[in-house]
Amino acid sequence: MLEALKEWDRELFIYLNNLGIERFDAFWIYVTKIQTWTPLLILLILLLFYFYKSKKGAIVFLYMILAFVVALTITNITKDHVGRLRPNNVEELSSLIRALQKPNSFSFFSGHASSSLAVATFVVLALRQFSKWIYLVYLWPLIFVTSRVYVGVHYPSDIFAGALVGILIAYLSHYFCKKTLRGI
């Protein structure tokens, strides 16, 4: 059963990766970089402080950072423990995929997915009472994690597992944030 899932994951990756169109490569390489999203992250932080004001804003911000750090820490521990090669490093896939980046670290699970969904979900949970538009923030991780398959460095299961971990961490962080805010 596990082998069948791995094969399905591999085949889905090859299919999705090969949907890439050369003239869009520069766009996907650009959006896969964390630095590209810095203005959005600054905006999200400003929104947290705008709606929660000084002391509460600082607490909410710290819990968002906590969600991000925990997501990355768990991701890195899992990657080292599982040791799954990225698709761009699997020799038998080299002639079947479009690899636009060539990182050498392990693949399972995606740090882009876990960290972006931890931050996005935390921000949505924290700000949904103030604005329905905050749900648009999910466009960021959607584009961000899609880029990882496009550039050839993550299987769909890496993205899915990272997303689940990030969302779970965001909910836990938000839960403890709310408890802390009640005490103020």
Percent of residues in β-strands: under 5%
Radius of gyration: 18 Å
Question: What best-fitting shape do the alpha-carbon axes yield?
Answer: elongated
Structural class: mainly alpha
Number of helices: 7
Multimeric organization? single chain
> Could you spell the SSE succession in H and E letters?
HHHHHHH
Gap from first CA to last CA? 51 Å
**How many β-strand runs?**
0
Count of folded domains: 1
Write the layout of secondary structure elements.
Blueprint (H helix, E strand, L loop, with lengths): L1 H16 L7 H7 L6 H15 L1 H29 L28 H17 L11 H12 L5 H27 L2
Overview of this structure, please?
With 184 residues, this protein is an all-alpha fold. It has one domain (2-182). It is built from seven helices and no strands. Helix 3 (38-52) packs across helix 4 (54-82), helix 5 runs antiparallel to helix 6 (139-150) and helix 5 runs parallel beside helix 7 (156-182). The mean pLDDT is 94.
